[in-house]
Amino acid sequence: MIFSLQGTVQELTPTYAVINVQGVGYYVGISLMTSQTLALNRETFLFIQQIIREDAHLLFGFNTRAEKEMFNLLISVNGVGAVSALILLSTLSLDEIALAILSKNSALIQKAKGLGVKTAERIIVDLKDKVQKFSNPDENISTYANNKVKEESLSALEVLGIPKRMSEKLADRIIKQNPDITIEELVKQILKNI
Question: Cα angle at 81 between 95 and 86, to 5 degrees?
Fold first, then answer.
């Protein structure tokens, strides 16, 4: 079993890298999070998860041990393959994944391309007791539980012509300060701050 690789980045894309270890090139699937930490022709160290199937021996690389652990938790869920797990790790940070699971926010998990309602809910049910260590204790979980308020507020603002990207960070900051805010109040606050 390959546990880690140390070598030079020979090829790099957002979804895979080729790591040259003393003349042998290893094709490694990676997340966007890991891809952003790598640079072509630079020395790197990756934690590796090897998956052996009948038709292939696959390697997946991670910049941190925590990302590898989250990947393994995700693929332990029935219906979540390695590619889906990498897409989720590319879409959300480890913190966000953990908080989405802990606050039962399946809508946030579904932001990852290819993950539907049933799979998102299965992830929440299967992993709710296993992701505690990934969540940042400074974050208030009720902030994320209030995501319905955030989503509806952002939709209302989009109707008013305000792009979601523009208002999303403001919404997060306001909800963090006031977790019990109503939709109407949140919309007003965001409009004031734009």
Answer: 40
Query: What is the pTM (predicted TM-score) of this model?
Result: 0.68
Helix axes 183-193, 147-159, angle to 10 degrees: 60
Q: Which amino acid is at 179?
A: P
Q: Which of 28, 167, 12 is nearest to 86 (CA)?
A: 28
The CA distance from 70 to 84, in Å, is: 12
pLDDT digits (tens, 9 = 90+) for 43-97: 999 999 999 989 989 999 999 999 999 999 999 999 899 999 999 999 888 888 9
Distance CA 110, CA 101 (A): 11
C-alpha torsion 53→48→14→6, nearest 10? -130
| Beta carbons within 10 angstroms of residue 119's beta carbon | 20
